[in-house]
Amino acid sequence: MTPATAALFDALGDPTRRAIVARVAQGPVSVSALARPLGVTVTAVGQHLKLLERAGLLRSIKQGRIRSCELEPQGLRIVEQWAQACREEWEARLDRIGDVLDTLED
To answer: What are 87-99's pLDDT values in tens digits?
Structure first.
């Protein structure tokens, strides 16, 4: 696992950050709008956002006094690629186990 992939999973390891990513995946949203349903302060959301931005999952835009966040699709593509690689590896392993079991039946 690369350091970038590890940072993504570290960022997604927290339920609050996963909730933020899920909400931002629906479309751009302000930091204060993110904080309301989470029951945390805007400052706390800001700290989570910094980590999510460093991991490449989100980007934020400041317009006047309002900071909004939007999804960075490339970050999720990295997670998708990692999951696909794991799936391929495990499918190959299971195929080999199936081959061994087939030879035992003969």
So the answer is: 999 999 998 998 8
Q: Under CATH, which number does the domain 3-105 receive?
A: 1.10.10.10
pLDDT digits (tens, 9 = 90+) for 44-58: 999 999 999 999 999
The Cα 34–Cα 20 span in angstroms is 7
Closest CA to 57 of 41, 77, 42: 77
* pTM for this prediction: 0.76
Q: Which DSSP string do the residues of the chain spell out, in sequence order?
A: --HHHHHHHHHHTSHHHHHHHHHHTTS-EEHHHHHHHHTS-HHHHHHHHHHHHHTTSEEEEEETTEEEEEE-HHHHHHHHHHHHHHHHHHHHHHHHHHHHHHHHH-
